[in-house]
Design a protein that fits this description.
mainly alpha; 3 domains; 3-stranded antiparallel β-sheet
Length: 375
């Protein structure tokens, strides 16, 4: 619907502001020096909106969820950092479930019903027939149930698809987005599994049998770095003399410096002596792929007699040690790359403050007396 308002100027001259409003579209306004021009403009814009609405209605009635997912996987996922692996997994599930539905037929009620099914169904994380399976011969894969947090990730993946349909692709009207106003499920508190001193010693005794894995695990404990940051680390970003690492590829897309001290630095120096000179990666994988640490780490954890421990828990363990040694919240965020809106300004601390905190962690891991008198 269009409205036109007249406004008198100081010198008696008049202007006419046309405003066009239509559900599903942003309000459009423009000002002219005659009412006739304002009316013509408003009529043109209104017609464009009607045509666009009909076009979107038609696309929503014609296009399927599978078409939208396929386009998203082809055009959007490749641009995401890390290859969008989670998006691919989640969207594959949605494609199988409601892929045949027309976009315009997907309602909030449909999404809530499918989310409930997602939570009820069981799944396995391992395929006995896969080349890289971690299952032993004859071992059956464990069966799991998805958590509310996982369900939220699945919903978020499909929500991104509908955002594109209602935006750049113009397959749906914005008002027809079924995710608008849909609340997330309440998630449980994050996992906080840490290694005890005895468990840490047992694990390192096992990883020591594999120099590459041992170096990876030692650095993870000594720097609180993520697995992805470490496996993408190159020798060009390692300063053995200063004990400094530069992670160029991080979860929050901001490069971060990490300090290494004590036995961890000694281990890295020894490991560097037998590096593959033709490979730039600190932890090279087979061919051109990344180092596959998962199966090796799981085997070491099992041999060490440790229950319910994942590689990412090394990061939690390191952060817990640092916190207990008196490391400030700001230092922790600078060391591990954790961020929040409140303390983001403190992420880039003075290098010396971070270096001192890492020295304390090295002393802890090496079994020495910390500077504050604790262990």
């Amino acid at each position: 619907m269009a409205t036109i308002r007249k406004r008198e100027g100081r010198h008696g001259d008049a202007t006419y502001t046309a405003m066009v409003r239509r559900a599903g579209f942003p309000t459009r306004t423009a000002t002219f020096n005659t009412r006739e021009k304002a009316k013509r403009w408003a009529a043109t814009v209104d017609a464009e909106m009607i045509e666009g609405r009909h076009s979107r209605d038609a696309a929503g009635a014609r296009r399927t969820v599978a078409e939208a997912i396929d386009r998203y996987l082809a055009e959007e996922v490749p641009t995401k950092r890390g290859g969008g692996g989670m998006h691919t997994t989640c969207l594959g599930w949605w494609r199988e479930r409601i892929g045949e539905k027309k976009l315009g037929r997907v309602t909030r009620a449909v999404l809530v019903e499918e989310r409930a099914k997602l939570l009820r169904e069981s799944f396995t994380r391992a395929d006995p027939m896969a080349k890289r399976t971690q299952l032993e011969k004859g071992e059956h894969p464990r069966v799991y149930k998805r958590t509310p947090a996982t369900a939220n990730r699945y919903m978020a993946a499909l929500s991104h698809v509908f955002t594109m349909c209602c935006g750049d692709w113009e397959w749906l009207q914005p008002a027809a987005n079924p995710f608008a106003g849909l609340s997330q499920l309440k998630e449980a508190k994050g996992r906080t599994r840490n290694l005890s001193d005895e468990e840490r010693d047992s694990l390192l005794a096992e990883t020591a049998k594999d120099p590459t894995l041992h170096t990876l695990v030692t650095l993870a404990l000594a720097t609180a770095a993520r697995a992805g940051e470490l496996v993408r680390l190159t020798w060009a970003d390692v300063d053995l003399r200063e004990g400094r690492l530069l992670f160029r590829i991080t979860k929050n897309a901001q490069p971060r410096t990490a300090w290494v001290r004590g036995d961890a630095l000694d281990q890295l120096k020894q490991y560097a002596k037998v590096r593959q000179l033709h490979r730039p990666e600190v932890f090279p994988g087979k061919g051109r792929g990344e180092y596959d640490y998962a199966k090796r780490f799981a085997a070491a954890v099992k041999a060490a007699g440790i229950d319910d421990f994942r590689f990412h828990d090394l990061r939690h363990t390191s952060a817990t040690y640092l916190a207990r040694l008196g490391t400030t919240e700001q230092q922790l965020k600078a060391i591990g790359g954790w961020k929040s809106g409140v303390v983001s300004r403190y992420v880039h601390l003075a290098a010396k403050d971070v270096e001192d905190a890492i020295q304390k962690l090295a002393d802890k891991l090496d079994g020495k007396k910390a500077t504050d008198g604790g262990k």
